[in-house]
């Protein structure tokens, strides 16, 4: 049975992530949705901030709260509550995710070093999810999946042509067969597979049509 919190988080996710979370086992769904919802929340925070300083202040709040014991955090935010319930011991990876998004505060185009920090932070959160699910042996594959998804997703949302082309070039270098994932990590295979298809099309939405949904279903059910 899914917790109400996990179901609530689904509403905060973009379509590709929402599709992916459908394939998480019930006992792992909250942790998976919490990480992806935090990532989406941080992206929205930057998109809505009227000036860089305001964005940095909001990011700093998340970094500070994630650095506290779960019992000392405020209650009522569904993302923060879900993290407290499911990410004990791996909060550093989520703090790294905040640091990664902070790279995007600068005016475009993002330089190569900043893009690498951003991509590595998202990939690191995927690897941490593998460890939380007791699949540490799959952490490297999870990191590779996260890297491909991070680049494809960045390219899909980049408004600067130089950022778009740079991310696609890096993604093509990173692209390969989607790693076979344990059942608990199938959502990561779904996101990597959708990213792979988007990169092969030259960038754009990760879910662009019915064929992408069918691929997500296949990856979610069979892992490859």
Automatic annotation (TrEMBL):
<dbReference type="InterPro" id="IPR002060">
    <property type="entry name" value="Squ/phyt_synthse"/>
</dbReference>
<dbReference type="Pfam" id="PF00494">
    <property type="entry name" value="SQS_PSY"/>
</dbReference>
<protein>
    <recommendedName>
        <fullName>Phytoene synthase</fullName>
    </recommendedName>
</protein>
<dbReference type="InterPro" id="IPR008949">
    <property type="entry name" value="Isoprenoid_synthase_dom_sf"/>
</dbReference>
